[in-house]
Write a structure and sequence with these properties.
two-stranded antiparallel ribbon; mainly alpha; 7 helices; 2 strands; 158 residues
Length: 158
Amino acid sequence: MSLSLIRKGLDLFSEDIKDGGSAAGRKKPKRRAEPNSVMNRIGSNRVGVKKQVRRIHGTAGKRRNRATVKNKPVKSAIEEYRKNQPSSHLEKNLAYMLGKTVTAEAKVTEKIVLQNRGRQSRDRPAEEKKKPQEKSLFTEADFQNFQKEFFGRRVEGV
């Protein structure tokens, strides 16, 4: 045995040795605590006993009432499924749109649309090019001379 163990043992029994085993000097034996008592559940270290007792009394009931994973409540799978289901907002949107009675003028809306178009060529409206009138190489007199020569007489109105 080590020397420190012998000293601790002697310190424990020093009072018994000094009294000489007299009955008057002996203390009453301590009652044993119940096997499931709080004092049996805490550690033997003297420091932090109150905190350990508070922790045992305070959180035992809460833990039993709800399921947790790392102190976070477990959510029901059915509730999560219902929450993530898409819902139709058609009725709300229609009521909102039909409730608006103010409309802008056509010129204003067209101006806004033109401003918001992109700057790329594909986003610009096609500009109508005016075709220049074709100029004939022949004059009206030339046509009449051709008719006279081809048909032999002058045809009017054609």
